[in-house]
Amino acid sequence: MTRLTVNNEAVEYRMAPDTPLLWALRDASNLTGTKYGCGTGSCGACTVDIDGKAVRSCQVALRDVEGTFVTTIEGLSRERAHPVQLALIAGNVPQCGYCIPGITMMAAALLKRDPMPSDEAIRAGITNICRCGIYPRLVEAIQRAGRAIRGDERLPAAPRPGIDPAEAARRVPALDPAAGR
Q1: What is the pLDDT of residues 16-75, one digit of tens each?
Q2: Residue finishing a domain among 76, 91, 115
Q3: Which residues does the UniProt record annotate as the domain 2Fe-2S ferredoxin-type (predicted)?
Q4: Could you tell me which residues are beta bridge partners of residue 13?
Q5: What's this model's pTM, rounded to 2 decimal places?
Q6: Full residue range of the structural domain in which residue 17 is found
Q7: Which residues are registered as beta bridge partners of 9?
């Protein structure tokens, strides 16, 4: 059994000690914001914060995180109110969104260490892979998040997630096959 703190809650995992932290978070804790991407630590989709450091959770065994404090994207801010999340949304950075939780965690750790990183520091610090190619907008969004953290800029609130199911799709009579068309 491995004991650690996940998103400020004490957790005891009754899984094999060599289980990657990624699978403990996703399968046992149902924290599915941490994504499986490559399984080799290359892509960064599984990035979480362990004791203040951005770590690829697919590369860390449970036995290696005994007693640590782990923060996932859900623990960063379920309401999408963290400055990095707000800046990414305001800059229209997310496309497919699969890499965004890992990038967000990596950027949050970077800004915790250096709230005023240069463009070069951001490019060197964010080593996550995004197949959609968000990189040009990503650098500016992280700069904006840094300004917000320092109090130099106010970011707009994020829109509420999701859509009302009643508004998601409506039957339009002119397109309805039952209407004779």
Answers
A1: 999 999 999 999 999 999 999 999 999 999 999 999 999 999 999 999 999 999 999 999
A2: 76
A3: 1-76
A4: 2
A5: 0.86
A6: 2-76
A7: 6
